[in-house]
Amino acid sequence: MPRPWIHRLAAVASVALLAASVAGCQSSVDPTASPERLSRGDAGVELASHGVETKTRIHRVFGRLPDRRRKAVRSEVGAVVDGWWEAAYLGGTYPRSSFPAAFPGFTRGAEARARADKALLTNETQGPSIDSVTAKHRSVVVDVLATGGQARSVTAHVVLRFETTGDKAGTTTVRGRLFLTRRSGEWKVFGYDVSKGAKR
Asked: How large is the greatest C-alpha to C-alpha distance in the chain, in angstroms?
């Protein structure tokens, strides 16, 4: 029986597009389509931020991508995820109910969908009953689709766990996938598949 506190939302068309692209790369006979072995430099990077540091690493690369570009992708994507976490869950002064800029790094379309899903993608519903938020775990695992030596799209597997104090004291876990592509030289979230659960 599914646990009632888990809610899932997905940008179906966007996810299907990315999944098809990745699947095509995996099944192609082109040798550049196979996931490359990761170098030691792909092991991870920690991004200092609220509470604990975010551990970011590359899991698979579909296609050819030089080491320097891998490191850049890992850092840039990690920063996008961190920006959302800070704006939506961890940052600001509590108690509060307003999250006017909760989705930095999202495309306009994804932001519009996310604003309709604020109960899931931010602390909006429990914010008025929270006194403080402390991050306990932050991880980002990145799969990259590359062509022509450039990263074209990314799936970021994310896990955020934080503790709250106040009337709604407890532990909340946010996990799922963000789908990103490059727009005007910057990584942007164009779709998501996220769940959030709380233990009081």
From this structure: 57
3-state secondary structure 81-131: HHHHHHHHHHCCCCCCCCCCCCCCCECHHHHHHHHHCHHHHCCCCCHHHEE
Q: Residues in the chain, how many?
A: 200
Question: Could you tell me the pTM of the whole model?
Answer: 0.79
Nearest one of 16, 10, 26 to 145, comparing CA atoms: 26
Token readout for 1 is 């029986």
pLDDT tens, residue order, the chain (200 aa): 433 333 333 333 333 334 433 333 332 223 333 444 444 445 544 443 456 999 999 999 999 999 999 999 999 999 999 999 999 999 999 999 999 999 999 999 999 999 999 999 999 999 999 999 999 999 999 999 999 999 999 999 999 999 999 999 999 999 999 999 999 999 999 999 999 999 98
Query: What span, in angstroms and rounded, lies between the C-alpha atoms of 194 and 162?
Result: 16
* Angle subtended at Cα 183 by Cα 179 and Cα 189, rounded to the nearest 5 degrees: 25
Count of Cβ atoms closer than 10 Å to residue 137 Cβ: 15
Show the 3-state SS of 139-175: EEEEEEEEECCEEEEEEEEEEEEEEEEECCCEEEEEE
Alpha-carbon distance 158 to 56, whole Å?
A: 9
